[in-house]
Design brief:
Helices cover 10% and strands 41% of the residues. By secondary structure, the protein is mainly beta. It has one domain. The strands form 3 sheets. It has a 5-stranded parallel β-sheet with strand order 1-4-7-10-13, with no helix packed on it. A 5-stranded parallel β-sheet has the order 2-5-8-11-14, with no helix packed on it.
Length: 195
């Protein structure tokens, strides 16, 4: 449900961004891509959803949004790996700088009958005037290595919005969650905010 809502929001924001992007836009670099989704265990299933948006920079503004390079692998027999990753960022006007990273998240289910679900969200972005907004997040790992183990990781890094002469730097990310023992369960929820 969350992925459907976020995908709808991302699609709407993409349409809105392309309709208002000025011809004199200065530096808007959005990467994304390089995502890997593999189900190689017998009767295994891998489900991946990745969204990277970013964009819209005018004047001397910069909006650099990365994301991407996420890996979702179900290598154990009867295993399941589900990954949902979203990186938005973007929008820098005037002399503003908005750098949003995210991405490089790993979700692996390699134990027999194991389940690994990972959901990561990095927002950030929106710097106008002389403001800066640098939001990191990303580099999170979720592993279910034990037989019949379950690993569930939810990471959100928000940040963003620095107006006029403001500075807003939010990090977060680089979280590790692992269920290694037989029938073990590991659940991790991390939230890093800031305005």
């Amino acid at each position: 449900m969350r992925s459907i809502i976020l995908s709808s929001i991302a699609a709407f924001a993409a349409v809105a961004a392309t309709s208002v992007t000025p011809a004199s836009a200065q530096i808007s670099i959005t990467h994304g891509g390089g995502n890997v989704n593999v189900a190689k265990g017998a009767l295994s299933e891998a489900d991946q959803s990745a969204t990277t948006l970013g964009g819209l920079a005018s004047g001397h503004g910069k909006a650099i949004t990365n994301g991407g390079n996420n890996r979702n692998i179900a290598s154990g027999p009867l295993s399941y790996a589900g990954q949902d990753t979203t990186t938005l960022g973007g929008t820098a006007l005037g002399h503003g700088l908005a750098v949003t990273n995210g991405g490089y998240n790993n979700n692996i289910s390699k134990g027999f009958g194991s389940s690994a679900t990972q959901s990561t969200l990095t927002l950030g972005g929106t710097a106008y005037g002389h403001g800066k907004s640098i939001t990191s997040g990303g580099y999170n790992s979720n592993l279910a290595a034990g037989a019949f183990s379950s690993a569930d990781q939810q990471v959100a890094t928000v940040g963003g919005t620095a107006g006029r002469h403001g500075l807003n730097v939010v990090s977060g990310g680089q979280n590790k969650n692992a269920a290694l023992g037989f029938g073990s369960s590991a659940s991790q929820q991390v939230f890093t905010g800031g305005q």
